[in-house]
């Protein structure tokens, strides 16, 4: 269970970001020599290493808190702007906590007393703490720039992997459909035709009715109070506008495994989907017989993938 949790993208990212922060702080301290570190000779490497370890540990704690307690993870499944926002919140929480930890360590390292930096002339003060706030904040600006770039690359890489996976499933599905069609053509002369289930779509105005097999529906697009139903009839692509909701259409279609609502305004037949593409950080489906791209909302991408996996497994069992 622990290994499985560590392999989750969110937790892997937490580890990566924390290690990056620790390495960056080590290099920054070595180059800039703040806090009169140049006066230290024997303990300088130890001081740098300790600051780096503290930065890594605090960054990991704040990342875990932000991701799992505040539910603001850096997750590639989320919109990119949301991931950037979550990163900013993480840094805002990290700055005072890291400054506090470094102030305590500085007192222990330089004065052998972690409370020493908080007292001056017999009075409690925050001078050293504010100094660390300044240095940590300046460091976090550079760290956030790197995180911003990594977030974009990570997000794009995840989208490409998602598109490749779904396209592989679509290709496998199209092959299975083609093989099934060939088998049906070979046995059609010797076996009686099975009755094809029909779905009845009834509009709210006039005598608007459409009766057809669910498998003939290519896609349905919601347009305000109407729905544009694209379907196959006599090997031709046809359209029909009806005053009906997507919910009513899904209820009429029933639990057909190839029909899926991929967007709040679209229902699509997976049997007609040729491929998926990623344009301007948005998923789109290319449909056989039409040039219209069908959008896939981020929340419904996993639903499309699960439907394809389920249909593929079902087809394998039949074979």
TrEMBL record:
Domain HTH LytTR-type, residue spans: 201-310
Statement: the UniProt record of this protein carries the keyword Membrane: yes
Domain of life: Bacteria
Keywords linked to the UniProt accession: Membrane, Transmembrane, Transmembrane helix
Membrane-spanning segments: 12-33, 45-70, 91-110, 132-149
PANTHER family found in the cross-reference section: STAGE 0 SPORULATION PROTEIN A HOMOLOG, TRANSCRIPTIONAL REGULATOR-RELATED
Protein name listed in UniProt: LytTR family transcriptional regulator
Gene3D superfamilies listed in its UniProt record: LytTr DNA-binding domain
Taxonomy of the source species: Bacteria, Pseudomonadati, Bacteroidota, Bacteroidia, Bacteroidales
Pfam families given in the database record: LytTR (PF04397)
Keyword Membrane: yes
Entries under InterPro entries matching the protein: LytR-like, LytTR_DNA-bd_dom
PROSITE patterns registered for this protein in UniProt: HTH_LYTTR (PS50930)
């Amino acid at each position: 269970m622990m290994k499985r949790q560590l392999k989750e993208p969110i937790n892997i990212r937490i580890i990566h970001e924390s290690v990056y922060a620790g390495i960056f702080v080590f290099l920054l301290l070595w180059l800039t020599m703040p806090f009169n570190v140049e006066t230290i000779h024997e303990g300088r490497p130890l001081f740098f290493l300790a600051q780096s370890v503290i930065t890594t540990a605090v960054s990991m704690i704040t990342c875990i808190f932000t991701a799992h307690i505040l539910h603001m993870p850096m997750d590639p499944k989320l919109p990119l702007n949301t991931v950037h926002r979550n990163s900013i919140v993480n840094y805002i929480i990290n700055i005072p906590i890291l400054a506090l930890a470094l102030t305590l360590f500085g007192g222990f390292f330089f004065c052998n007393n972690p409370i020493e930096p908080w007292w001056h002339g017999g009075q409690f003060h925050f001078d050293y703490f504010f100094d660390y706030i300044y240095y940590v904040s300046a460091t976090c600006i550079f760290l956030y720039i790197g995180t911003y770039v990594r977030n974009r690359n990570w997000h794009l890489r995840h989208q490409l992997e998602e598109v490749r996976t779904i396209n592989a499933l679509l290709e496998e599905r199209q092959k299975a459909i083609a093989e099934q069609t060939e088998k049906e053509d070979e046995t059609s002369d010797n076996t009686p035709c099975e009755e094809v289930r029909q779905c009845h779509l009834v509009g709210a105005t006039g005598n608007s009715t459409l009766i057809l097999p669910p498998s003939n529906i290519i896609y349905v697009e919601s347009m305000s109070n109407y729905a544009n139903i694209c379907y196959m009839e006599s090997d031709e692509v046809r359209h029909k506008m009806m005053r009906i909701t997507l919910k009513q259409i899904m209820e009429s279609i029933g639990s057909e495994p190839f029909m899926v609502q991929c967007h709040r305004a679209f229902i699509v037949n997976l049997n007609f989907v040729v491929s998926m593409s990623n344009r301007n950080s948005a998923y789109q489906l290319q449909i056989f017989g039409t040039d219209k791209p069908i959008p896939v909302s981020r929340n419904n991408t996993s639903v499309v993938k699960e439907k394809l996996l389920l249909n593929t497994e079902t087809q394998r069992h039949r074979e």
